[in-house]
Amino acid sequence: MSTKAKVSDGEARDRLIIWIRRRMEEFGxxxxxxxxxxxxxxxxxxxxxxxxxxxxxxEGDMPDWLRAAKNAGVSPDFFRIEAEPQIxxxxxxxxxxxxxxxxxPMPQR
Length: 109
Hints:
The chain is mostly helical and 109 residues long.
């Protein structure tokens, strides 16, 4: 048995939130910028994905990974993502208010 004290789920969650807040502050990421990025991801869902996680939403030039597969004789349809089931609220607009949990004032040390 380990001699390290076990961290409760609640404590691990609190530590993670503090870490995320600090990284956001370090890189100048605002809650609004995060909400905007989430909204952009929701509105530009990928159409194609390979096994390595490369994605393309079908806009702009075909990416190298898909072009290489096509040149090797693999149909781009092989990489087409099937329609995914809708997650409750996934179609709604991202709001900074949804991020309040992460951005409540940090306790002072």
